[in-house]
Amino acid sequence: MSVRTTLSLVSLSLLTTAVGCGSTLPPKELVDARAAYQSASKGAASQQAPAELHVAKQSLDQAERSFNDEGDAPQTKDYAYIAIRKSQLAEASARALIAQKEKEAAEREAANLTADQLRSAQKELSSTKQHLEKTQDQLAAEKVAREAAEKKAAQALADLQKIAAVKQESRGMVITLSGSVLFPSNESTLLPGAMVKLNEVADALIKGNPDSNITVEGHTDSQGQRQYNMELGKKRADAVRDQLVSRGVAADRIKSVGVGPDRPIADNKTAEGRANNRRVEIIVEPNKH
Question: Which residue from 16, 196, 201, 226 has the highest number of Cβ atoms inside 10 Å of its Cβ?
């Protein structure tokens, strides 16, 4: 398992950030910084690079203090980004030190061997050096790939935030679209403008989350019979799913669910509350690969 995959697993398991008004949960950058430090502290860095790990902890503490004092401010995100890099540096230093120790051990052993054994050892040492060079190349490639993936994901999130309400929950990234924007009243046929909007959502999902599983949930208010609302919620979820698939989202990783009136986010006693409850939620689950 690569360093990038391990960090992604830890980060996604810790991701409970909520994007929206009045949120007091930490920004995604701080959650990633915590995950990066946890990964580093449980790995070789705790033994091989304690000084660098200590610096990473100090950087994380600084980000935590900024969050406590300033909340989800740009300064907090900057400190968190620095903390991530410090944790990654501690892990990289530990790997480099281990590799150097292996190289030195091989060299010491080679010095005590006979001529025939020396030739064999030199061959092994050459292979070890090649392996080290390959490892360094892989680390550099991983860094470039990670930075490209982060940039791509950030752009995809920015694109989504322009067209829908987006927040982070423990179940994943939740994209909320108003039912009035997508469908005529009491119908499950997409409006022409809704197709354009969903095409933009699909493009962003393909760009930023090509491997994640996705659930489309259809929600309604509590007006009318529950069974009718359950069926309407399912039909609307199906319509959104079908549109996303038609735009290129893989059909085998997206499913639709009718929630109906069972999970309101506002008071159904007011017109505004009912309007907020009539919605479609697209949940992009944490990537477990």
Answer: 201
Between CA 107 and CA 114 the distance in angstroms is: 14
Q: Which residues contact 63 (CB under 8 A, 6 or more apart)?
A: 29, 30, 33, 76, 79, 80, 82, 83
**And the tokens for 263?**
């999970």
Residue 264 CB: number of other CB atoms within 10 A?
18
Q: Residue 55's closest CA among 91, 101, 18?
A: 91
- The answer to whether 153 and 286 have CB atoms below 8 angstroms apart is no
Residues 24 and 123 in one domain: yes
Domain boundary among 154, 178, 207: 154
Mean pLDDT of 212-225: 94
Check if the beta carbon of residue 143 is closer than 8 Å to that of residue 7. Answer: no
Q: Which domain holds residue 273?
A: 164-284
Q: Which DSSP category does 134 fall into?
A: H
Average pLDDT, the chain: 84
In degrees rounded to 5, what are phi and psi of residue 87? -65, -40
Would residue 170 count as lying in a domain?
Answer: yes
Q: 30 lies in a domain?
A: yes
